[in-house]
Sequence to fold (97 residues):
Amino acid sequence: MSIGHAIRAARTIAYMTQKELAERCDISPSWLSLLERGERGISVSSVDIVAEGLNLTSTLLVFMSEPDDERFDIELKKELSYELIRRLKELRDESEA
Fold:
């Protein structure tokens, strides 16, 4: 999964539109759309901004984009997976309230 697909997945789980996320991040909705489709790259500082807009850490967002990356050992994968699932459920619950 690319970073763009990870952003789309997290945004969708949080029941956010592209426009809402773009406004939170002070970025263009069209740039976000291109990013989610993998047609634009993203800088580290932009990953931080988008992650903050999603109420996630940039580490979790990067982890979502590269779940099988050998740079992550198995314990780190488990820890980040639990944190990611917990945070995404919180976001979904907050949006339903």
In short: The CA atoms of residues 10 and 54 lie 7 Å apart. Residues 74-96 form the longest helix (23 residues). The chain has a mean pLDDT of 83.
